[in-house]
Amino acid sequence: MNKLIKKANILVEALPYIRTFANKTVVIKYGGRAMTEEALKEQFALDVVLMKYVGLNPVIVHGGGPQIDRMLGRLGLEVKFRQGVRVTDRATMEVVEMVLGGKINKEIVTLLNRHGGTAVGLTGKDGGLILSKPLTAKAWADRLSTQLDGSPDEDFGLVGEVQSVNPHLLINLQRDNFIPVIAPIGTDPGGHTYNINADLVAGAVAAALKAEKLLVLTDVKGIRDAKSRHVSTLSRKDMQRMVKRGTISEGMLPKVHACLMALDGGVRKAHIIDGRTPHSILLEVFTDKGIGTEIVA
Prior knowledge:
Helix content: 40-55%
Strand order of the largest sheet: 5-8-2-1-11-13-14-12
Order of helices and strands: HEHEHEEHEEHEHEEEHEEHHEHE
CATH class of the domain at 22-216: Alpha Beta
Strand content: 15-25%
Oligomer: single chain
Radius of gyration: 19 Å
Number of strands: 14
Mean pLDDT: 89
Distance between the termini: 43 Å
């Protein structure tokens, strides 16, 4: 009986959050070990489907770097990074599109549907969802407040950045109770295809949809301060100061910039959370304490 009472108390604790977030959009950047470990994949799918059934509108943007690396290795193609960005020639772009827009995207859609959801897979090409332009190495270094390595004339190839997101397709899918699952691939007005950082796509999608929340799944417990202490809540200005001082660096920088992009676009809160924690998105959205680092405007 005590176990049943404990379950009932958990449901009661979630009720205010279910009421608050009813019919609101939550954009989830899905990546890291939550995408590769079978148990975590199953839990993620269950969590997203549950969110949909209790009245939220989840939208998923996924990455897939390790899977791309493995496929490039199998094909004998070089894996090359500069400034933390995958240098993408035409052959690499074909692999990126095949892995992200094909294999990974459809695996996530299938998993969600198997657990009772109604998911649909997209790339930025579908319905003119993501208009993009080439990302230069200088622009990337300036954005991340880092020094430019290598030649200033050497860029990333077919790596893009988001110019705009057309939210109408996503809004229509939400209205029909679909769960959109987006691979971070975009096109420019000339029809050229670009590989885009998934964190930044998630931030741009959240801003375009005026989402209630952006959740960024990582393989760490959140943001740490200069003394390596976990920070549970940050203001936008505090986070900008930490970036300028170098306290936030390397792989966390694109995630932080995605959060800033979302907040600038009208998203109320952004969260960087540990996707290795079972049911991490439910803990963040539906409990009193939450997990990870919350960034507020």
